[in-house]
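Appendix B. One record, verbatim.
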Amino acid sequence: MTGETIWERLRPMAVMMFFVVVVQVLSLALMPSLSRTEVRIFENPESAANPFSYIILVLGFTLFILMAMRLKKGWVVSGVVLLAIAMGVYYVLSAFFPPLPALLLSLAVLTFLHLYPEWYVIDVVGLLVCAGVGTLFGLSMTPFPALLLLVVLAAYDAISVYKTRHMVTLAEGVMEIRAPLLFVVPRKRGYSFRREGLGSGNDRGAYFLGLGDAIIPTVLVISANWSLALPQHELLLGIGANLPALGAMLGTYLGFAVLSMTSRDKPQAGLPFLNGGAILGFLLAALISGVAVF
């Protein structure tokens, strides 16, 4: 096997890993500014009910999308998704710009995404949305409910991909209507998501990674970093993380490395690997730091 062939095989997974790293580092960079705002998802960040409230939101949104696609109302799904993405982008930009410029920039991003939904546009917007949502939920939960969230969603992801398979149907449906809910990594030069879309089988021109696979482990990273009073270790350009947060990050990457070794010929549930790695990395680092999590 030539070096080029090996690289062609590893490149898509390396790019996806890079996306996850960028989301987590960007979330850490956003955390100080966003933590000073009053925006939170849950009123009590220590409540063990928070993860189950999140699950209800996920199930409701999933049911809405599946029903809309069954009724051939893809434009409704596309509109709701674009609106949600615009809100996520606005939340990120509002940490750095006054409200009006942040709103105008968000509308510009939304317009560009709607008119030109090419894979690199979708990926850049996805990075912003994942960082914003991951930071927001991380700031809304302390580590214990965050751990519960990761465990429950890992189990849900496995069931919905391997048993009921409704997550596979959902992913294929949103890609067919060009709803930007996944990262897109081309398999070949010249690939255009606008022209070719999802594709099928050997004709599929790209690999896809759900935004949730980047968001959910990041929730634990941010939760550990803001709620545990431990020394910060600088990563780059003044961006810091404490040891449990770093452990969750490294565990996420290890889990992704294991995921990359699974078959790519059929859809795989990412969260059991990513969340499992993040949880193990966090718990080990928390033990080393002498922090009581439970």
